[in-house]
Amino acid sequence: MATSTAPVEGAGLEAPRRALRRPPTTDVASARRRLAVETEALVGSVIAATTSGLVGWVFFRGLVWPLWGKWSVGAVAAISVVITGIVIGAVGYRRSRDLPGQEWRRRLRPWKTALDVATVAAVHAIIAGILTVTTFVVLQRSFEGIIVDAFTSAAATAASAGLAAYWISLSVSAITTNRLATLLVVFMGSSVLASMATAQDPAWWEYHFSQLGTADDISSRLFNLAVIIGGAFVTTFALYVHRDLTTLVRQGVLAHAWAPRFVSTVFVVMGVLLACVGIFPLDVSFWLHNLSAIGMSLTFLGMLLSAPWTLRGMPSRFFWFCTGAAALLLGGALLFEPVGYYSLTAFELLAFATIFGWISVFIRFIDAIAERGEAAAAAVPAPDGGYSV
Questions:
Q1: 206, exposed or middle or buried, with CB in 10 Å at 0-12, 13-18, 19+?
Q2: CA 35 to chain centre
Q3: How many beta carbons lie within 10 A of that of residue 99, not counting itself?
Q4: Residue 7: what pLDDT?
Q5: pLDDT for position 22
Q6: Is-contact 148 64, C-beta < 8 A?
Q7: Pairwise CA distance, residues 44 & 31, whole Å
Q8: Are 65 and 178 in contact (CB under 8 A)?
């Protein structure tokens, strides 16, 4: 008896339908990774809270303390947040090299890896420390004259360190170029604002922006430290920019294969010069400080003006944005000198906002173009009549 080999109507579609009903393996693996990251963040939070709480109990016991002041609950909590944040951030960020999309970091040279891990962890820890200080200052102002006992002080310290560790652990496990750009802007903005708010000289702005780093107090140390770490962070940021621009070269967006190395090198130069602004405060070396500050601005301006050639292939609206940023920078310089409408401090603030604002928009352009290229590649028909995914 002959067996029919004719295809049954609808049979060819049944297998794909069954396959669609099954959860994709990649989705299951992704869910497991997210659960593992959440678990590690929770464990790190408990460890940070426990150690900080015990240290706080030893420090606070037997006395009552204000929420904010030179020696207070807020000061101890901020120190605990920074120390535990650096440790949790460094461990979590180094472990994230094994996550999908981060494997390229395992091929970095040891010194680049060390700088990458140190700056990312430090930036997270300092942001968390500044937020902690702000919280306790607001609480102290809201409950004027309040003092708390050792148990409450230790609990508040433990809660601060635990919450900060949880956020830091989750953040470092999902680092992207866009997130780095956001962190860079938040870090520099919050650090500089904190330094301005705590400056001992209320007339600092009558001189210049760098006056913040000349006094021998906590405000000046914070300003110089923020500028140094910010410069190191920009050099780390260059690693991600190089990788993303290389992706655009591979997709055929950028015309020049050397563009990623050129742009990342410019970012490294800017980072080194920014760090030198903090390494050489105005009262330490007038010439080195000014040379570093002016050199960073000129380097950035050169990148803006050369963008239509170095980054050929980017959308024309991006080059219009570069032109606008360059015009804003040059216009601010003219309003300072020779017009005299702006003070030096106002021009420095304008340059600061222009540089870091441009970086944020630049990264968003890169992300959007890369995603468009990936979507276009995924929609290309495969040889079997389906679509490449």
A1: exposed
A2: 24
A3: 15
A4: 46
A5: 45
A6: yes
A7: 20
A8: no
Give the position of tokens 């020779």: 338
Counting as low any pLDDT under 50, the low residues of the chain are 1-24, 382, 386-389
Integer Cα distance of 326 and 261 in angstroms: 22
Calculate the alpha carbon distances from 279 to 184, 290, 344 in Å: 19, 12, 21
3-state helix, strand, coil in the chain (%, to 5): 75, 0, 20
CA–CA gap between residue 129 and residue 222 (Å, rounded): 11
230 contacts 184 by C-beta, under 8 angstroms: yes
Cα–Cα distance for residue pair 353/337, rounded to 1 Å: 19
Identify which of 266, 272, 267 has the alpha carbon closest to the alpha carbon of residue 292.
Answer: 272
**Tokens encoding 146:** 């309040």
Query: Contact at 8 Å (CB) between 125 and 168?
Result: yes
Measured at the CA of 6, the angle between CA 5 and CA 7, to 5 degrees, comes to: 115
Strands of the chain (E only): list them: 65-66, 147-148
Token look-up 């760090």 returns 275
Output the six-digit token pair for 183.
């962190």
pLDDT score at 18: 43
Hey, which residues does 387 pair with through a beta bridge? 381
Per the CB < 8 A criterion, the answer to whether 90 and 171 are in contact is: no
**Which tokens sit at 39?**
């678990």
Q: What are phi and psi of 314, to 5 degrees?
A: -70, 160
Classified as helix, coil or strand, 316 is helix
Cβ(108)–Cβ(242) under 8 Å?
Answer: no
List all residues 6 or more positions away from 211 whose beta carbon is below 8 Å from its beta carbon.
Answer: 201, 204, 205, 282, 345
For residue range 154-207, list pLDDT tens digits in order. Answer: 999 999 999 999 999 999 988 888 888 888 888 888 888 888 877 777 777 777
Cis amide leading into 338 (omega within 30): yes
Chain centroid to CA 293: 22
The rounded Cα 57 to chain-centroid distance in angstroms is 33
